[in-house]
Amino acid sequence: MPATCSAARSKASSAVASRRCASRPSASLPPAQGRGLGAALERAFEEEARRRGLAELRTTALWRERALLGFFDRSGFRLAPVHVLDCALAEAELGSPREAAVEPGAQPADPNDYGTPRSADFQPLARDRMELATLSEADLEGVARIDRRHTGRDRHGYLCRTVREALADGVRVSLAARLDGALAGYLMARLDYGDFGRAEPVAVIDTIGVDPLRARQGVGRALLSQLFANLSAIGVERVETAVAPGDLGLMGFFYRAGFRPSERLAFLKQL
Residue 45 to residues 61, 85, 113, 168, 202: CA-CA distances in angstroms? Predict the structure, then answer.
């Protein structure tokens, strides 16, 4: 399930400081149902999470999966205070041939002035205006710098764990954006290969961060555009994230990118 996506006024803010674990629900085979195996697995999972110092469990489920929702209720989960959003890449403009160019130049007054583009056909896309690459451990200091500018705190240890978790996936989809050689923004995401009620793989955006000094320069849009293009190339069809209800700036950012309310509900359990 998606961790709460964090962002501030410049489409990026602090991530949730407490350590957490994403639980991916699955179903027992019919002959094994009703024997308490799910509850036993849940208890063992919680014990291991506590042993590792985790503070909470988070997961999602389709609102139609009544049996699974009942299991979460009996296990002590409650609705998480976030909105789950998703985006079907086939319908998104970002990362596709339909993506609009950014800030097209003015048309030349003189038709013989070939120094100014005459149409948007060859205008740069958001992702063409900066260096975009796979997020690496070398970007950690830049991630910490951006986080300090948003939060006023040094959370190097937490961010080090977060970055390393993002890099631990077999298929790395997290991204870094650089302008003038410095990290201007980052996007941490992972692939979820399916769970109960969802067989197809999806990408989950955990965190997107933009340097406040690079606000309104298209960094967040460029990161999403490159992510969508990369995911489409490997056959991923859908992207999910979660946003706090009061974060209207981030909500608007994702809506403009093609995200809409998901049919999945988010759940939380404090350990």
Answer: 18, 27, 67, 20, 23
Instruction: Give the span between the Cα atoms of 111 and 271, in whole angstroms.
Output: 68
User: What is the reported pLDDT for 111?
Assistant: 39
Please measure the distance between the N-terminal and C-terminal CA atoms of the chain and give it in whole angstroms. 17
Coil, strand or helix at 59: strand
Report the chain's C-alpha Rg in angstroms: 21
pTM of the entire structure? 0.76
Q: Is residue 186 a contact partner of residue 135, using CB atoms and an 8 Å limit?
A: yes
206 versus 5: the higher-pLDDT residue is 206
* More confident call, 38 vs 248: 248
Structure tokens given for 91: 């319908």
Instruction: Catalogue all structural domains in the chain, each as residue range(s) with its CATH number.
Output: 82-262 (3.40.630.30)
